[in-house]
C-alpha cells in the first residue's frame, strides 16, 4: 500500500505544525531565550550578526551626523571616535569595544557626549547579547539530541507467541558503551476512533502496556532488548487478527527516555510503527553470542526476523473457541 502520512517519523521527528496562532505569537518573545535555543544554528548566527551590524551602524550614524566622515585626515579636528571614517572602521571599533580587544588605533574622545551615551548603552546591551550567545551555544552543543541517534529501534515490529501468549514485540539497542541511566520505555497507540456519543477522535492516543505494572518498562540497556506487549483483554489489539491487520490503520509511537551517563542530561529517542511495519508470525533473530571472556552483539542481524508458527486468530477469537470447547 501507499505509505501514508505519519504522526511521528522513523527518526523521531513529530509531523505537527502549529498555525494560525494569532496574538499568541507574543508568547515566544516572553520566553526569548528558549526561542533562541529552539532556532537552528543559521538563524542564531543571523540574529547575533544582525545585532552587531545595527550597533556598528549607530556608531557610523554618529560619525555621519557630526561630519567626521568628511574630515578623516584633519589633525586640527577632534572627531567623536578617532580613525572612524567609514562603515568598516565603525564596525571594527564596535568589535574592539565589544570584545575588549583594544588595539589602541580607534578610541572615543571626551568631546562627544552622544558617543559616551552610546558607549554605555553598548556596554549594557553587549553584556546581555554575550550572555544570550554563550548560553545558546553551550546549551545547543550540549543537547543530547545526537545521543538519541545512537539508540536503535528495529525497522519492524512482530507479533508472535511468547510463553503461550500472543505478544507484540520490537527491539531496541544502544550503540555506545556508555549506559543510559534510568532508561524507561513507553508506547502509544495512535488511532482514529468514534465514541458511542458520535464524537470522532482523529488522533486518539491509547497507552500500550509494556510492563508498567511489573517493572519491565525499566530497562538495563547494555545489550539489545526485545520489548514485549502482551495482547490480552485489556489491550487495544484484543480483536486484532492476521486478516484484520491488513485493513487496520494505526501507528505505534515508541518513546525511549533516559539519562546520559557521561553528561547527566535527559535524552529521549522516538520512533513509530505503522500497520504495514507489523509482521504477523515473525520473531527476531538472536544477536548475542558468547566469545572468549565477553558477550558479542552482532548488529548486522538487529533488524532480521524469521517466520514462526503463529495462530492467525485474534486473542478474542481464541478465547471464544476455548470457551466453546
TrEMBL record:
Q: Where are the transmembrane segments?
A: 43-62, 116-139
Q: How does it sit in the membrane?
A: Multi-pass membrane protein
Instruction: Give the subcellular location.
Output: Membrane
Q: Which InterPro entries match?
A: Ig_E-set, IRK_C, K_chnl_inward-rec_Kir, K_chnl_inward-rec_Kir3.1, K_chnl_inward-rec_Kir_cyto, Kir_TM
| Record-annotated site: Role in the control of polyamine-mediated channel gating and in the blocking by intracellular magnesium | 130
Q: Give the catalysed reaction(s), semicolon-separated.
A: K(+)(in) = K(+)(out)
One of the entry's Gene Ontology molecular-function terms is: G-protein activated inward rectifier potassium channel activity
Which Pfam families does this UniProt record tie to the protein? IRK, IRK_C
A biological process (GO) annotation for this entry? regulation of monoatomic ion transmembrane transport
According to the record, the signal peptide region is none
Report the Gene3D superfamilies cross-referenced here.
Answer: 1.10.287.70, G protein-activated inward rectifier potassium channel 1
Q: Where is the Inward rectifier potassium channel C-terminal domain?
A: 151-321
Q: Which residues form the Potassium channel inwardly rectifying transmembrane domain?
A: 8-144
Record-level GO cellular component terms: monoatomic ion channel complex; plasma membrane
Which controlled-vocabulary keywords does the entry list? Ion channel, Ion transport, Membrane, Potassium, Potassium transport, Transmembrane, Transmembrane helix, Transport, Voltage-gated channel
Spell out the family assignment given in the record's similarity comment: Belongs to the inward rectifier-type potassium channel (TC 1.A.2.1) family. KCNJ3 subfamily.
What PANTHER family does the annotation carry?
A: G PROTEIN-ACTIVATED INWARD RECTIFIER POTASSIUM CHANNEL 1, INWARD RECTIFIER POTASSIUM CHANNEL
Write the protein's name.
G protein-activated inward rectifier potassium channel 1
**In which organism is this protein found?**
Cuculus canorus
Organism placement in taxonomy: Eukaryota, Metazoa, Chordata, Craniata, Vertebrata
